[in-house]
């Protein structure tokens, strides 16, 4: 389901935006998950991933532009639509790769054209991601970029194609988030089957890495790999 955030301190404008989203959904037979925030700090602190974000540029505590910069540190793909009283302020949106802006008071035709474009971009660019909570927000990881996960006590290290990210998290939670295409090859590693290129009696090659394959996990991995390859045809 498409997740949408509205960060707007004016209650009337926030309610109007939410009603427009509900109206569009009713007209097109769709349901959207909508969350409303009254300032930028609450939005950033929520650490939730959203496909589309409506951000009021002028808000107390943290304005929309600063909130967008924080968002971009963790999520490069969310569609940002700025909400503003003056169109010239929206030019700053290019600094954070905002998709567009709407000017208050917002009318439905203006909203509809921007929202339709945002939906198209979100659905076209959709990739399955997981969210890692951080002290100052969150980090979004595309699952397809995770090669394997290394387990060291309560610390999980996510080995991606081009970087490494560590996070305190139970292994059971990571397995739940990552799904059936990630399988343990031993008690220390959870591998992405999409990157498995070879299996021997006691090792599994994942990308450019050779990891230990335990005897107890070998059958499970081979069965899961066969099912995975069959699914991909």
Automatic annotation (TrEMBL):
Swiss-Prot/TrEMBL keywords: Phosphoprotein
Cross-referenced Pfam families: LytTR, Response_reg
Annotated SMART domains: LytTR, REC
Domain Response regulatory, first and last residues per copy: 3-119
In-chain residues carrying the UniProt-annotated modification 4-aspartylphosphate: 56
Molecular function, one GO term: phosphorelay response regulator activity
Domain HTH LytTR-type: 130-196
UniProt function note: May play the central regulatory role in sporulation. It may be an element of the effector pathway responsible for the activation of sporulation genes in response to nutritional stress. Spo0A may act in concert with spo0H (a sigma factor) to control the expression of some genes that are critical to the sporulation process.
The protein, known as: Stage 0 sporulation protein A homolog
